[in-house]
Amino acid sequence: MGSGKSSVGRVLAKELNTYFIDTDALIENFENMSIKEIFETQGEEVFREKERYCFKWIKNNVKNTVISVGGGFPVFIPEIKEAGIVIYLRVGFEEILKRMTDEEIKKRPLFQDIKKAKELYLKRDKIYTDLADIIIENKEIDQTVNRIKEALWK
Predict the structure, then answer these.
(1) Is the pTM of this model over 0.90?
(2) Which string of DSSP letters, residue by residue, matches 136-153?
(3) What's the pLDDT tens digit per position in 49-74?
(4) pLDDT at residue 10 in the model
(5) What mean pLDDT comes out for the span 6-17?
(6) pLDDT of residue 82
(7) Which region holds residue 84: left if phi is over 0, alpha if psi is between -120 and 50, else beta?
(8) Residue-range domains of the chain with CATH
(9) Contact indicator for 21, 66 with CB cutoff of 8 Å
């Protein structure tokens, strides 16, 4: 959450002359409701099922596309690598807080309690690190995109 996945993903896709998909937006379109509404009305477990459906759809139907996944996606779908190269855009927790507006924080169900959000961040950081094919410190979009392209063509 707040790592810049969507911003970096859009720029990277444009530079690679390909498509960009954000799984949270895809799920919202599939369900015709926001992620927050899904959490509030159906719960996290149902949302995770929707993520799994989204993953299967992507794996079976999408090629040569930059995909930004929600923060829990790699945690609950460790087979994510079956769909392609996994890049972890690492950003420190304090930097994430600086980047997010109060309105953005309100939209994120798992970010309502900052202490719990930091615990979740620390837990997920290890999972993302272990799972990633490439780890990039995301500080500035253009620099990050260039570093990703360099890493992809090594």
Answers:
(1) no
(2) EE-SSHHHHHHHHHHHHT
(3) 999 999 999 999 999 999 999 888 99
(4) 97
(5) 96
(6) 92
(7) left
(8) 5-149 (3.40.50.300)
(9) yes
Task: Give the type of residue at 13.
Answer: A
Q: Of 28 and 100, which is predicted with more confidence?
A: 28
Name the E strands within the chain: 19-22, 65-68, 87-90, 134-137
51, burial (CB in 10 Å: exposed 0-12, middle 13-18, buried 19+): buried
d(CA 124, CA 76): 11
CA distance 11 to 94: 24
C-alpha dist (Å) from residue 60 to 56, 69, 81, 86, 92: 6, 16, 13, 17, 33
Q: Which SS3 state, helix, strand or coil, does residue 72 take?
A: coil
Task: For residues 11 and 52, give the distance between their C-alpha atoms in angstroms, rounded to a whole number.
Answer: 26
Query: For the segment 97-119, what is each residue's pLDDT rounded down to a tens digit?
Result: 888 877 777 777 777 788 888 99
